[in-house]
Amino acid sequence: MCGIYGILSNDTIKDRKILTIGIQKLRHRGPDDYGEIWLNRDTVGLAHQRLAIIDTSKAGHQPMSNRINNNTIIFNGEIYNFKSLKEDLKIRGRSFFSNSDTEVLLQAYEEWGTDCLNKIEGMFSLAIYDNHNKTLFLARDRAGEKPLYYYQDDRSFRFASELKAILSDEKIERSVDISSLDCYLNMGFVPGERCILDGFSKLPPAHALIYSLNTHHTKIWKYWSLPQSKKNFDSKFDLVEKLRTLLEKSIESQLVSDVPLGILLSGGTDSSIITAIASKLSPGIKTFTVNFPNGGKFDESQHARLISNHFKTDHVELDVNPPNASLFEKLAIQFDEPLTDSSMIPTFLISELVSNHCKVVLGGDGGDELFGGYEHHSRLLWLQTIKKFVPDMLVPIISIFISRRLPQGFKGRNWIRALRYDLDSSLPLIATYFDEQYREDLLEKYQNDFISISERVISERTPKE
Fold first, then answer.
1. Which of 2, 116, 183, 195 is catalytic?
2. What is the spatial order of strands in the sheet that 286-291 belongs to?
3. Cβ neighbour number for residue 454 with a 10 Å cutoff
4. What is the DSSP letter of 445?
5. Cα dihedral 324, 328, 334, 340 sign
6. Which helix (H) or strand (E) element contains residue 130?
7. Annotated catalytic, 183?
8. Is 69 exposed, middle or buried, given 0-12, 13-18 or 19+ CB atoms closer than 10 A?
9. Crossing angle between the packed helical segments 101-112 and 82-91, to the nearest 10 degrees
10. For residue 63, is the peptide bond before it cis, meaning its omega torsion is within 30 degrees of 0?
11. Model pLDDT for residues 20-74, shown as the tens digit of each residue
């Protein structure tokens, strides 16, 4: 994890401290190295906080500029196929002065332009200032693992890994975006390109952006979409073998590191599969399990121990102390936008403990989303079966009548509301926190401003026939 921050202005930026102060807000993302550079007669400032993973030498320092045309990159993330890309670029006549994936990214852009996004595999948010065209190229990885915020006014364009870097300039106006607040009250997070602050945006996953310093024009496009599923499926055996191959290839590429690396092992299916494959590729790899004293069912250490013993990993068990009130103050500083996910608490505690042993860890996060591992997936199938026994004309009446008489937060209330959806063509939001009526009451003063935009967001997520 690294931190990036940049400012582009139509006017010469006289106060250079603004860049320094902003990037220092991101030091927690990369304490190993710091750098900043001013370009184009001090109208472009780029800064970087580095967590050194690949090529930890000074050769990997950022911002990194090409020695020929002075194109400059700042980058947060890791490119898993950088070695094969590097060989391809060498064949094309390009030479390298470092062993970093950052330089490969920069050279890939200079060879293929923005089409380089179709060739790279990894997690990233990147920014490249093109000195010849006087343009800024921003891009975010396909899944949106690495964050990227931006803000544009009449005279400047700013971007950063976190809002707090941009907000270090006290001259920037800040107010809550009511539509985004409506989304948060409904879903528990601010989705897509929206931001909790008015005038700020997030670059969505699998999107890229070009900003022209000359014209002040911004172009945004989506460079990747999920491939369509095949109508004629392979046999189950073939699909399992394809999945195995993909997992092995993915894990092998993510084991590349110039610093100590380990695995977060809970003993569940996801992390156990990762451990099984990684231990084959790297025998004796470190695994970490977190113990929650008196945690009951939340303490999974015995399951992790069985997996570790079976695959003969170098296993470490860490005890997590119960959180106190001071932790919430730390989290409030870290999270620039509101979030209702309580897992942020154990995630922070675990990361803090593991950082004393390893700089990089692999985990199973995302497996449930990808493979339908959450209970509500099977519950929706059950709900679809129940609906078959209820007359169509009664379904919306039952749903609305009962849900309006149950208090907000009542267990099962969202499932009753979900009856009114056609589950063959739409996906109800089961994790609703405040429904339309409650949000209208809470935001009554601003009703004309948001008109329940979160309902529109949900409809945008619904699969089309």
1. 2
2. 314-319, 286-291, 261-264, 360-362
3. 25
4. G
5. positive
6. strand 122-130
7. no
8. exposed
9. 50
10. yes
11. 999 999 999 999 999 999 999 999 999 999 999 999 999 999 999 987 778 999 9
